[in-house]
Design goal:
heterodimer, A: about 280 residues, mainly alpha, two-stranded antiparallel sheet, 10 helices, about 75% helix, globular, B: about 325 residues, two-stranded antiparallel ribbon, about 0% strand, disordered N terminus, disordered C terminus
Chain lengths: ~280, ~325
């Protein structure tokens, strides 16, 4: 085989393998849409499950996931942004900074079920929040921190150094510079990070298993100390724990969850593209 | 950023200045505390795992704790079958994902025309976004019956888990491997081509060896992702806590992983019981494994590089 033939063969093999990776992804999404679409209706989204969940809709689970996503944002946002600002603007090249970075890398790698154990041990039992929206939001919020931090830090670092220099030379303090010059320009990137993190949180099951998720709870939560149903756990329950579940409802639930999570990714991508287009430097 | 702002003429009058300074100091302290929070949180996670899981290490003799029988009803807490289950599923996932992921990274980074690249990359990002429970659901309801039809006694096997895990770790492997290829200077390729190599020879003999450390890290983090995955694995591996005998088709029998055991059994145990703390002990083992993998990967690349690759997941 000549060198040129080897090259051509390699290109063919590489292309085929890339197709093996990409085509199943498209098929999976089309399959869920195709099977789940017939179940979707206004009633499916706005009614509570009935008759042992074999009829009715997914409203309590949908609402629970929305509530948890808000809770996650409230927990994750301040801590992550503070960390990102610290790392990008204040941190020196020293041991503390290296430790912080090491901690973030490791937080990103901890299995989601271990976050669930931690939430159970600390929030549910030790702090006495019980199985509650509060405990679940805290657990999910902490879990999303690494994604938000790294995206936000990149966005802050992408603001040109001259912006800071000019602001400082005009007599602004370091914080004023960050507040009025750096953060406004980094905002779209920061928002991208938050949306990405929330998308992840909305689809997670393992961290909410022991901290918030209710098996079947048709009434809505009244406070942050109540349990709630959540879509990912609901999908797990109706597909493996309830015998004789109509397939249509299962696929419909999977589709709604998929749409929610993918719309987060889509919005994040759009914000990022928009940001790149509008960038003035 | 150390600019001598005091020298600037138009600074605020003295009393206002001290106010600004106070506010400044408070805000800087708050931000610094936020920065340290990651360290505090990871310490808290470990502490609380220890708090609940330590009794298992103290009350169960180590030989039993890592022994071959997991049968909680009889108070037999041997983690070996679970470790074996996680190992088999993870090794299988890596064996599938490694060739697929590296090849796709090479294709995207070196061969694919830019227009195709712009279509393919978002599709792979979408894969990263699909919740594990949705993939588990599809594995359970569609893939498992398919595998059973191929002749296995059941579709819920280590292989089914590996297959799904492989696709779940592909986005991690591809994005980090692509970064590693991208970091190889263009001069290397030009140099190889200039002395008469074909493009493939340049990739195989020059670019890949130069990118090897980054590729190793891609694989490590892929393994980390696979070993910690819970829901999908729980739904498709059949949850049998046996050590598969290494005879025929040990890859095609049901297994149970560490993660799935925690998820499946925590709901039914009495708080504070030995079973309960053993599940936390499994959590400690998982924590230590992921800590080892990530710290090693972090050290190999210089922590900064890993952070960038992870951040660039979208």
């Amino acid at each position: 085989m000549s060198r040129q033939q080897a090259h051509r063969l390699a290109v063919v093999v590489l292309t085929v393998v890339a197709a093996i990776v990409v085509i199943p992804i498209i098929l999976v999404i089309l399959y869920v849409v195709w099977k789940g679409l017939p179940a979707l209706s206004w009633a499916f989204l706005t009614e509570a499950p009935r008759n042992g969940m074999k009829e009715g809709g997914i409203m309590p689970a949908l609402l629970g996931t929305i509530l948890l996503t808000f809770g996650t944002a409230i927990v994750s946002f301040p801590l992550s942004i503070a960390t990102a600002i610290y790392l990008a603007e204040y941190a020196g090249d020293n041991r503390l900074t290296r430790w912080i970075r090491m901690a973030i890398v490791n937080l990103a790698g901890i299995p989601s079920i271990v976050y669930g154990l931690f939430g159970l041990g600390m929030f549910v039992l030790f702090l006495g929040f019980g199985t509650s929206i509060l405990a679940g939001s805290l657990t999910l919020g902490i879990m999303t921190m690494p994604v938000v931090i790294s995206t936000a830090e990149e966005a802050i670092l992408a603001v040109p150094q001259q912006f800071r220099t000019v602001s400082l030379s005009l007599g602004a303090t370091r914080w004023q510079t960050i507040r009025y010059q750096v953060l406004p320009h980094a905002l779209p990137g920061i928002i991208t990070g938050i949306i990405l993190g929330l998308g992840r949180a909305a689809g997670e099951t393992a961290p909410i298993l022991f901290t918030v998720a209710a098996f079947y709870l048709p009434e809505l939560p009244r406070s942050i100390f109540d349990q709630t149903m959540a879509l990912p756990y609901h999908l797990y329950v109706i597909s493996t724990q309830v015998p004789g579940m109509p397939l249509e409802i299962q696929y419909g639930t999977a589709l709604v969850l998929l749409l929610i999570v993918l719309s987060f990714t889509l919005v994040a991508t759009l914000v990022r593209t928009q940001m790149r287009r509008r960038r003035e430097w | 950023m150390a600019v001598a702002k005091e020298r600037v003429g138009a600074s605020p009058p003295p009393e206002q200045q001290s106010q600004v300074k106070w506010g400044e100091r408070i805000i800087e302290t708050v931000i610094k505390m936020g920065g340290i929070s990651s360290i505090v949180i990871i310490a808290l996670i470990f502490l609380f795992l220890l708090r609940e899981g330590l009794p298992a290490f103290l009350d169960i003799p180590l030989r039993q704790l890592f022994g071959p029988t997991w049968y909680p009803i009889e108070e037999m807490f041997g983690m070996l079958p679970l470790l074996a289950g996680s190992l088999i599923v993870t090794v299988g996932a890596v064996a599938i994902a490694l060739p697929l992921g590296l090849t796709t990274a090479i294709y995207l980074g070196e061969i694919a025309p830019p227009s195709l690249r712009e279509i393919l990359k978002p599709i792979i990002e979408v894969l990263a976004g699909i919740p594990s429970i949705v993939l588990g659901f599809l594995g359970w309801i569609a893939l498992a019956p398919l595998i059973q039809n191929l002749g296995a006694p059941t579709g819920l096997t280590a292989f089914t888990g590996s297959l799904i895990l492989a696709y779940m770790s592909l986005p991690t492997i591809i994005s980090i491997a692509e970064d590693a290829l991208y970091a190889v200077p263009k001069e290397y390729r030009d140099g190889a081509l200039a002395i008469g190599a074909t493009q493939w020879q340049a990739i195989w003999r020059v670019v890949l060896p130069a990118a090897r450390p980054g590729l190793v890290i891609a694989v490590m983090l892929g393994i980390g992702r696979a070993i910690g995955e819970t829901m999908a694995v729980m739904m498709v591996t059949g949850n049998a806590a046996n050590i598969p005998s290494f005879q025929t088709g040990f890859f095609f029998v049901p297994v149970r992983t560490m993660t799935a055991t925690i998820a499946a059994e925590m709901g039914e145990v009495a708080q504070g019981s030995l079973h309960y703390s053993t599940l936390f002990a499994i959590g400690i083992v998982l924590f230590v494994i992921s800590f080892a993998i990530n710290s090693l990967a972090g050290r190999l690349v210089g922590v900064d590089g890993v952070r960038r690759s992870r951040g660039g997941m979208l």
